[in-house]
Amino acid sequence: MATGEILARKGQMVVMSGPSGAGKSTLCRRLLEDPRVHFSISATTRKPRTGEVDGRDYHFITPEQFRQLIREGAFIEHAEVHGNLYGTLRKPMEDALARGEVFLLEIDVQGANQLKLLGEPGLYIFVSPPDFETLRRRLVGRGTDAPEVVERRLKKAEDEYRERVKYDHVVINEDLDRALRQIRSLIGLE
Amino acid sequence: MATGEILARKGQMVVMSGPSGAGKSTLCRRLLEDPRVHFSISATTRKPRTGEVDGRDYHFITPEQFRQLIREGAFIEHAEVHGNLYGTLRKPMEDALARGEVFLLEIDVQGANQLKLLGEPGLYIFVSPPDFETLRRRLVGRGTDAPEVVERRLKKAEDEYRERVKYDHVVINEDLDRALRQIRSLIGLE
Question: In Å, how far are A47, A72, A89, A95, B122 from A61, measured between CA atoms?
Fold first, then answer.
């Protein structure tokens, strides 16, 4: 089965991680302007935030549904982040790769680590802020969240920042267009 | 299926977590002296350490085998710890619970969090050292590991210690026999 699986993969999985505030969501949005790029919609047990749409931003599901999907082997990875479960669905990935598309995953370092350790073939990109101080300013500067939320986010960002050595490529996002060109070139989109 | 699953459960799942050095392995070993208690053997991609036996301490498997087991929905939870994957197999648990036994899991807080978030019914026990300073002394005092290994273990222990509030019960392991009596009473073994 392993062989059939590899033969069927004409496309490429691209994993994008990086601390909150590094700009990876913006980069993913820009990459999606290319019709050859398909974006993974994660399933999560967390409640939708204002403006988030089910099936567009996430598949919002119950813990019981999440448990059933694990039982069916429907996830290629899943992880717990801040008290919620997040998972990447296998089916959309396999379909996109069979069509020869780029399957883009924006997942946290824990999920990316899992995929890498499982030997899931793909391009693992870490989007990094110019330095940790810049990131700290960006995260604190949002000013919309409670201090303990900012504190928790900073701690997680710091932990994530340390994980960048595990990735195939670290892209420094100082200038958005330059970072985008670099990533498109790594993927082979131009 | 959810109903059938619950009806079939005559036994009880007991999750034991706690920082390295809190004494949970010793407590688990003592609990296992009771024939009604069945211990979960995790699957892992990590290499066996000296003295560890496959099928007794862990099921040592390859990342490819681990990936296949995820695909089959064979795990009730799995997580990455220090660059290795660990998972709890569903089948032995369901068999033990159907037989009315206690199914004892010694897993890290990440795995326990996952199970709790998924709504997996069970008794969640956190084994705690008397205080964090005692733990620090125990971990440093082993003196058998490289400084960076001790450092990493301390950091993880500190992170885990903070998670104790999420458990149903925190058992302070100052006196082993007292801690054991407490746990046996929580499980309903006496």
Answer: 9, 15, 13, 22, 22
pTM value is 0.77
Q: Domain of residue B62: give its range.
A: 9-187
CA distance B113 to chain A (A): 7
What is the total count of domains within chain B?
A: 1
| Per-residue pLDDT band at A177 (split at 50, 70, 90) | very high
What is the bridge-based pairing of β-strands B169-172 and A37-39?
unpaired
Give residue B136's Cα distance to chain centre.
21
Tell me, what CATH number does B48's domain have?
A: 3.40.50.300
Q: What value does the mean pLDDT of chain B take? A: 89
| Shortest distance, CA A175 to any CA of chain B (angstroms) | 32
Is the predicted ipTM greater than 0.90, yes or no? no
Kindly tell me if the per-residue pLDDT of A6 is higher than 70.
no
